Amino acid sequence: MGLPRSVMRLLISRPWLLADALRLAWATRARGWYRRPPFLPIPPSSYLRWRMETAYGDGDAEPSQDEVERFVRWASRMRRSR
User: Fold this and answer.
1) Averaged pLDDT score across all residues of the chain
2) Residue 28 DSSP one-character state
3) What pLDDT is recorded for position 62?
4) Pick from 4, 7, 28, 75: CA 20 to 30 A from residue 38's CA?
5) What is the distance between the alpha carbons of residues 63 and 71, in angstroms, rounded to a whole number?
6) Using CA atoms, how far apart are residues 37 and 14, in angstroms rounded to an integer?
């Protein structure tokens, strides 16, 4: 599955979210990410499928850019409030 296209489109259209998105990716990165291609600290595809399944009822769902932006901002606020 990899990184959803909606996330890529969001970061291209709203680059000011890049730092928050990177912090979120780091917080949810796969264990041993540095041992497997593509050698990026991104969430495991099983985790992303589970998130889409619980949020949309379909593991292959792609959230809109607005939904992704709201989630990235929410996650950033939650980390800062700790």
Assistant:
1) 87
2) T
3) 85
4) 75
5) 10
6) 27
Residues 6+ apart with CB under 8 A from 15: none
SS3 content of the chain, % helix, strand, coil (to 5): 65, 0, 35
Query: Token match 């912090």: residue?
Result: 23
Written as six digits, the tokens of 25 are: 């990716």
Residues 78 and 82: their CA atoms lie apart, in Å, by 7
Dmax over Cα atoms in the chain, in whole Å?
34
Q: What is the DSSP letter of 58?
A: -
> At which residue do the structure tokens 């292959």 appear?
60
Cα 39 from Cα 46, distance rounded (Å): 17
Residue 40 has pLDDT above 90, yes or no: no
Structure tokens at 57: 């009822």
The identity of residue 23, as a single letter, is R
